[in-house]
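Blackboard transcription, Thursday session:
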Amino acid sequence: MRNSFLPRLILIFPCMNMLLMPWALILEIKNIQLNIVDNDHSVVSQRLVNKIESSTYFRLTGMSDSYSNALVELEKDRADIILEIPRNFEKDWVTGNNANVLIAANAVNGTKGGLGSSYLASIISDYAKELRAENPPAAGTKMLPNIRIDSQNLFNPYLNYKLYMVPALMVMLLTLLCGFLPALNVVSEKEVGTIEQINVTPVPKFLFILAKLLPYWIIGFIVLTLCFGLAWAFYGVAPVGSFGTIYLFASLFVLGISGCGLVISNYSATLQQAMFVMWFFLLILILMSGLFTPISSMPEWAQTITYFNPLRYLMQVMRMVYLKGSGLTELLPELGTLALFAVTLNVWAVLSYRKSH
Amino acid sequence: MKQFIAFVKKEFYHIFRDRRTMLILLGMPVVQIIIFGFAITTELHHVKVGVLNPSNDVLARQIVDRLGANEYFTIHQSISSPQAMKEAFLRNQIDMAVVFSDQFSNDLYKDRAQVQLVVDATDPNMAAMQSNYATQIISTTAYELLPPGTAKSMVPTIKLLYNPQMKSVYNFVPGVMGLILMLICAMMTSISIVREKETGTMEVLLVSPVRSLFIILSKAVPYFVLSFVNLTTILLLSVFVLHVPIAGSLFALVVVSLIFIFVSLALGLLISSITHTQVAAMLVSGLVLMMPTMLLSGMIFPIESMPLVLRLIADILPARWYIQAVRKLMIEGLPIALVLKEVVILIAMAVLLVTLSLKKFKYRLE
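(Written on the board underneath:)
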């Protein structure tokens, strides 16, 4: 605590992150730039264009007179998706043939291309339905079979991306602060040489590690509380479940991740080494935790690896408690695993700490 | 010149002696490419579907089979009641539930047959994709039920350009290139210079007959070589392991990368001249460079969706322009003429940063 830099870091780092990051971590697909090539210039095609224009997902950035011109626009990044309406579009529709349109999407970003084109496809099929409804089949014909499909979004009805990201971000903050600081701690004592003084005292290894752990445990609580406050104040995000559950899980998690930092610290000789090794592991752990991309999308072998990643469990618990309001009874398996991590990593930290060289 | 070569040699020894850091420097790109290439995908897989089908009739079962046959969905369990469905969602046992109305087949001709897709919208994008796909599958089934002749519809043909299988790797490879080059050039250079300051050996170097400009240059050369090695590994891995083709010209790609490496080296020099301790240099390059590069450069998250302030910050990041250029050159295979804007911006940044850091660099110790 003498170091004036650390307390400031503990306060400022979470604030900065909580204020800025949720705005950046948005995978929402909005403002898709659309270029329309209307070869038909008919009433039916014009209405389709208007309908698409009024949708919130798309921004009409240009009308080109041919597909190749539109493709040039796409290459220049002035369009993400091209919609080509063929000649005879209206005629085909009226004569009862299928009227085909072409959607060409820039799929370098797979999510954007895929979601964008499926949004567009659903607008078009809505439009077709609308047109069909305007001209019902002649009276007397029997009712056509029809299945009504509607979808309901549970737990996050407005598909708010921040609601999904904010709880996970807290986990990332906890990991960064409570993982990095202990990793630097023992090793900096080694570099400065003060570790020798501790080594000659009769303090047992277990007590030494415990003493190193406790401050980070408390820091974890401070950071978490700060995050709760910020999330509520700025994003109106409060857990559906109880705070107690989160604190319980977080306390186990912080013990585990700080233990992990101490293990690395014990094995490294210089500050630079500890920093790099920690950086390397944390990057993998964060990427494989399901923070950015869902774990269920990963291939089998990668999913197996994530079972050994403590972040995965806390991330899952946070989202479940925050959005679904899951309680302790539903989360018992995760509780056991996190406890196991905390015990193993700290026993390892005690064992790997050596007083003699 | 001979002195200069000797200095460069010394720097190489510095790097080679620290085995662990070296392993990480060379191993990092490999691990990242593998993680990003295989594990980090936003594609839909193995969506666990629960089915609540009170009437259990043929048509409903047919729809369920259709869903199960699709590669995206796995029929996980059948659910007996809405209560059980809620329970399953709370325990994360299912991602989506398909709920059929009570008398599904009987109601078919009365316009009352209803399918409700209940999705766990914790992850909004996945939820949107899941319900989109499922809706498409069910409406195809419904469409096939229509008697011939009455069916008319607008059928969109969807063509996905540049990345027909929608692989996320195509989006990530340029990002990883930017991140790794930034890490090695900026972070490592700055730390290695500051370390000399901190341990006091800078004094020894400054009194040697070598010009101080050369001291700095000799620091930069090994990292330049190292990042070139990494660039080659990344490209080889992505072409041969991930099967991401280099659609455009390799020459243009290398030229753009070289410009970016210059920018990062200059940034590293700048950081080293404003910080005094290794920890500070690490934190500055870590928090000010790496985090924004990873989050704001458009590597994972699209820049267009960000609010204006963040977009402006993103515009200052060299990595953003580099990643954009690589994406165009490598994945889309566009000619160099179309990335002129990015190249000019990168060159301007390089010139600015090099002059700034040379000006800032102090030839004397305080």
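Lecturer's comment: Residues 64 and 87 of chain A are 14 Å apart (CA to CA).
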